[in-house]
Prior knowledge:
It is a single chain. The chain is mainly β and 79 residues long. The protein has one domain. It has no helices and five strands. Strands 1-2-3-5-4 form a five-stranded mixed β-barrel. It starts with a strand and ends with a strand.
Amino acid sequence: MRGVIYSWTRTWHPFEGTEAFGSPFVTLSVTLPEAGDIRLMGVLDGEGEPIIGAPVVGHVAEAEVYGRVIPGLRWAVTA
């Protein structure tokens, strides 16, 4: 799935249940132009400063939250 970064936030505080993400982690809100511009949230793979409007590609990955493995979106910035 492909999209464009709409907004983002970096979380420095390790909230209970999110320890598997490490700290800090970046959460993206991504617009999907091919799906009527709906927005999906997910975690950014990799390091660096996200840029609003940058293209990203997403995939479903497993995340551990409160000791349970659940599906979650991961986004990677593309060139």
